[in-house]
Amino acid sequence: MNALIDILRARLGSGGMLTDPTDTEPYCSDWRGLYHGRTPAVLRPADTEAVAACVRACAEAGAGIVPMGGNTSMVGGAAVSENGHELVLSLSRMNRIRAIDPVDMTMTVEAGVTLKAAQDAAREAGCLLPLSISSEGSAQIGGVLATNAGGNNTVRYGNARELVLGLEAVMPDGTVFEGLRRLRKDNTGYALRQLLVGSEGTLGIITAAVLQLSPRPRQVEVALCAVASPEAALALFTAFRSADPSAIQAFEYMSGTGMGLVNRLIPDAALPLAEPAPHYVLVELASARDDDSLRTLLESVLGEALEEGRVLDAVVAESETQRLAIWKLREEHAEAQKRAGGNVKNDVSVPVSRVPELIARATEACERLIPGIRVAPFGHLGDGNIHFNLVQPDGADRVAFLARDHEIMDTVAAIVRDLDGSFSAEHGVGKLKPYMMPSWRGGAELETMRRIKHALDPKGIMNPGKVLPEASPPT
């Protein structure tokens, strides 16, 4: 390892490597605090050629590489092992926006650009990068694509996968996949970029991407609605979809428990409704039209829902400040739950029609499993992705509660499976959930994944211990 570090230091220079434990420590713990490892060095290449050189050297030495973007993974996707045998490769210095083309509606960005910086650059060019997630100020493009992030606008624009036209990546042997093409149509063999998107750094390291942009909306309308039940929330979504499906940009569900934690634990978060409610919906509509038709649509659907009792109360943002204040109530759910104590996250998806059943059955099962547990689901009702999160009982022991995380996750997962869903919707598998893969994706599906991994990364150096459970290499 010492010889390898000397080689890498000579290639990267003094500013391209961190070895002092004080400097490397922030890279050795994940955002949730679930994993704490060790690394002898953090590599900080500044360009694709340097990334390739690092990977070639590590491949020759058989050293594991953990690619890291903003380190915002919810499942330990960038966690290093405790044995100190893996090197962290940070993409943070590769933070250039290479090109924006408002005619092609594309932008070419390096992996270390934060999602927020990419959004801002697109906005300055008169365009919209529609991908939006709570951690966009820290999350970097490479990690966003490697995990196929979803986010708030999936209901309209799809996951990250749908926005990727081309990729540049360093493969496990140090060769460079040069696929930065801006084409909507390119039927020339296998779509290798899509193999890398969502692979969580286990098949290669994304270094740059061509992303598809959209026109900026001229109108945006946001409302926060109090509803009596998840069924009422789904009925409201159906009403908006029936009125104009193209207008829906986001449709978010929040429980009363989760909203209560946000209002209590997040400074400057204030509920703009007269009274607390058992459930809430945030609806955002957007349109390229420059008239009052969107407000008319919003008020018409909400007015009918209020008359029929599906909506108990509602407030419509009258300014950008009010819009951001409403979104703050949704975006701070994860942080509020973190501050409330130990919490177990279940990033699950079911068919949209079965979301109310998921919430009801999983709530009952978890409250039966741990009396006093705080059930705080929230998320993207419009695409069926609910973050079914559980917070420790008030005053309970955090360590004891988290020691039961697999038991809690398995309780929720059993219901998700019965509803034809998935145990991972947008956060990925990471280090936390590979144990679920054999029962959920076993047989030919898992075996094919193993064969792809072994074919591209025979030495198993790329993000070891993530996604796939341990197994003997295929013969």
Automatic annotation (TrEMBL):
One of its GO terms (molecular function) is FAD binding. It comes from the Bacteria. Coiled coil: none annotated. GO terms for biological process: respiratory electron transport chain. The keyword DNA repair does not apply. The keyword Hydrolase does not apply. Transmembrane segments: none annotated. InterPro entries: FAD-bd_oxidored_4_C, FAD-bd_PCMH, FAD-bd_PCMH-like_sf, FAD-bd_PCMH_sub1, FAD-bd_PCMH_sub2, FAD-linked_Oxase-like_C, FAD-oxidored/transferase_4, Oxid_FAD_bind_N. It holds the Pfam family FAD_binding_4. Keywords: FAD, Flavoprotein. Residues 35-216 form the FAD-binding PCMH-type domain. Its cofactor is FAD. SUPFAM superfamilies: FAD-binding/transporter-associated domain-like, FAD-linked oxidases, C-terminal domain. Belongs to the FAD-binding oxidoreductase/transferase type 4 family. This is FAD-binding oxidoreductase.
